[in-house]
Amino acid sequence: MTCSSAGWLKVWNLESRKQIGKDWRDGKREVSTIALSPDEKKVVSVSNDDVVKLWDIGKQINVLIGHASYVKDIAISPNGLILASSSLDQTALLWGLENCQPISAPLQYAHAVTCVSFSTDGKLLATVCWDKSAYTWDVSAIIRDAGHTEWVKATIYLPGGQRIMTCSKDGSLRVWDLDSEKHIREDWREENSDVHTIALSPDGNKVVNGSYDVVKLWDIDIGQVITKWTGRRCGVTSVCWSREW
């Protein structure tokens, strides 16, 4: 497959050197980068704008919106479940290709991020910036099918080190098993409000979360609210525990 500054993508037969099918059109924008999924059923493309486009056999099926400036590079994980994108907005994003939603907070940099690449086992992500440096990120603990429908705002390790909890803008808190990479109980729901932050109690038995206008205390074992504090008119952006609790 090739892409062009004229705004098209083309599929070619290497033996006959002839084009297969018709052009895939992306309007009049230059198509700068493409990536093929491991099963060869989907293609991801980047043009001179801040979005990523997902294609299926010549038809555009989704647009991934999350960057604030031009997207420079894209890469698909070896298992075909995660897409990484880098941008001039000084971030890299990880997306779930099944639901086309971000599965982590943006990876922040001090300069534009120009390249992204997964290791062959998918556990590491390499990025390159305009600061003349290359960075390596450990993504083996990222949930590949996070299930959250909005951005994951925060994560904490639970006692024992084999489980993590995530909270999301979609109003849910989830507990995950790191070995199976699956959530292991029903979601804890924060109705009609995104969850900004979470913190584990010093004894490891409770979790406190902050949302738009409420702070809630949860019992980890049963996943139920013990108490809550209301009356705030602005979002709660951070919570922490006293060591004496």
Compact summary:
It contains no helices and 24 strands. It has 245 residues and is mainly β.
Describe this structure in words.
Keywords: Repeat, WD repeat. The chain is mainly beta and 245 residues long. The chain has 2 domains: 2-138, 7 Propeller (Methylamine Dehydrogenase, Chain H), CATH 2.130.10.10; 152-230, Thrombin, subunit H, CATH 2.40.10. 0% of the residues lie in helices and 51% in strands. The chain contains no helices and 24 strands. The chain has strands spanning 2-3, 8-13, 18-25, 31-36, 43-47, 51-56, 59-65, 71-76, 82-87, 91-96, 101-102, 107-108, 113-118, 124-129, 134-138, 152-157, 163-168, 172-177, 182-183, 188-189, 195-200, 206-211, 214-219, 224-230. A hairpin with a 4-residue loop joins strand 2 (8-13) and strand 3 (18-25).
Uncertain spans, ≥5 residues at pLDDT below 50?
Answer: none
Please tell me what the overall shape is: elongated
Number of helices: 0
Strand residue content: over 45%
Query: CATH topology of the largest domain, what is it called?
Result: Methylamine Dehydrogenase, Chain H
Determine the mean pLDDT.
Answer: 81
- The tally of structural domains comes to 2
What is the β-strand count? 24
CATH superfamily of the largest domain: YVTN repeat-like/Quinoprotein amine dehydrogenase
Main sheet? 5 strands, antiparallel
Element-by-element helix/strand order: EEEEEEEEEEEEEEEEEEEEEEEE
Rg over C-alpha atoms, rounded to the nearest angstrom = 21 Å
Structural class: mainly beta
Report helical residue fraction: under 10%
First-residue to last-residue Cα separation: 60 Å
Keywords: Repeat, WD repeat
Pfam family, one: WD40
InterPro entries: WD40/YVTN_repeat-like_dom_sf, WD40_PAC1, WD40_repeat_CS, WD40_repeat_dom_sf, WD40_rpt
WD repeats: 24-57, 64-105, 106-140, 145-186
